[in-house]
Amino acid sequence: MAHNILVLDDERNYLVVLEAMLDEAGYNVTALSDPELALAYLEESEVDVLVTDMKMPKLSGREVLERVQRNYPHIPVLIMTAFGSIESAVEAMRLGAFDYITKPFSNEQLMLSIAKATQLADMHRSNRLLRENLEERYGLHNIIGKSKVMRQVLEMVDKAAPSRSTVLIEGDSGTGKELVARAIHFASPRKDAPFVSVNCMALAPGVLESELFGHEKGSFTGAVASRRGRFELANGGTLFLDEIGELTPELQVKLLRVLQERKFERVGGAREIEVDIRVVTATNVDLAQAVQAGSFREDLYYRLNVVRIHMPPLRERREDIPLLAAHFLAKYATENAKDIHGFSSEALNYITGYEWPGNVRQLQNVIERCVVLASGTSITVDDLPAEVRDEESQFKSAVDLLPARLNLGDTLEKIEGALVRRALARNDFVKVKAAEALGISKSLLQYKLKKYNITG
């Protein structure tokens, strides 16, 4: 793809020479002699590199540079002048010029500088496209769900995103906590700055401290060079700390200080580093109980828990399961070039009625497996893994997930409620059929629906 070069010079002889030279090199060239006309052209056209003279009537090259830096910071600007000096060169570079060339210049010098500028323009374009892709991929509209509990989550994300406040996302593993964290970032004023993610459980405490705060050269064995930590890398953006409940007491103290003062020191360092970040955390444990147990600092908990978002398990948002299943089916059918368009009604009933202990992540993996192994144009019951379609396997897996100590009466009621919900889902919410599947009368089913507050 040919790059678009805008050349601005009030000397027409230079314009003619530059236009011919750049055109011969394969660039798309627009040559203008009026600075105001050039600025108007930038508003309506895509320009990769601007080459401008320094001394011109109406507006100087410096004034053009300042306006481009303010309105089009992604466009590299090359300054040309016949009145070159060290002072003006330094000033142009200080204002953001990509390069500074003194007239008369060699053709090789100019072409080399423009080639480097187009490389920078390509990098800016790639970063912009990547950022737009990330916004599209992790935007609020990509969180799938129409259930009441998910509408509440989306409403909380929408309200919390514009603020600077810390957000605590709670929920079981696989419910999509990081997806919500990214949605908060890309719906916030910080969306053009970095989103940096750290899993606090994946790293040993000593390694995690260095990963978060960075370290100075020689601060420990193997520290052969200074290294910036995730707090510095996230400066201006969002730092997402997953599994925050796994932090050691020492790291909890350090995190609390950063949240309070926005300052920290690298491991082995003495210089304070200031950062401007928004912290979003997630956990699959009950931090309030951890505070009561003494394993998590109460002051840190209140610092993190300014805005709390609870991600419901999949079994509590069953009307979203068909939507998610269809989304993953389309995704993996495209990726695997498979002509698969949907689910049989029986397969969808099994998928909707399953408890999904692994939540959305497990559902995603199951649908991917089905797509890869399916031989027809739709997913049938035979394509489902045993744990989803086999009653005994389902029951055994559900029992194995129960805690060792529990109240038998409460647990039996929860199991009964789950069985009633599953029977409804697997029978298209037709109560007569659900009652037959459970081996009970319709009136008894009505009683149990009211008892467990179950609606169709």
From TrEMBL:
Q: Which Pfam families does this chain map to?
A: AAA_lid_14 (PF25601), HTH_8 (PF02954), Response_reg (PF00072), Sigma54_activat (PF00158)
Q: Which GO terms describe its molecular function?
A: ATP binding; sequence-specific DNA binding
The residues covered by the Response regulatory domain are: 4-118
Name all Sigma-54 factor interaction domain ranges. 143-372
Which residues are reported to carry the modification 4-aspartylphosphate?
D53
Name the InterPro entries for this protein. AAA+_ATPase (IPR003593), AAA_lid_NorR (IPR058031), CheY-like_superfamily (IPR011006), Homeodomain-like_sf (IPR009057), HTH_Fis (IPR002197), P-loop_NTPase (IPR027417), Sig_transdc_resp-reg_receiver (IPR001789), Sigma_54_int (IPR002078)
Which terms in the GO cellular component ontology are assigned?
A: cytoplasm
List, alphabetically, the SMART domains matched: AAA (SM00382), REC (SM00448)
Keyword terms of this UniProt record: Activator, ATP-binding, Cytoplasm, DNA-binding, Nucleotide-binding, Phosphoprotein, Transcription, Transcription regulation, Two-component regulatory system
Q: What is its main location?
A: cytoplasm
Q: Do the record's keywords include Lipid biosynthesis?
A: no
The alphabetized list of GO BP terms reads: phosphorelay signal transduction system; regulation of DNA-templated transcription
CDD domains attached to this UniProt entry? AAA (cd00009)
List locations, semicolon-separated.
Cytoplasm
Its protein name is Two-component system NtrC family response regulator
Q: Which species does this protein come from? A: Desulfobaculum xiamenense
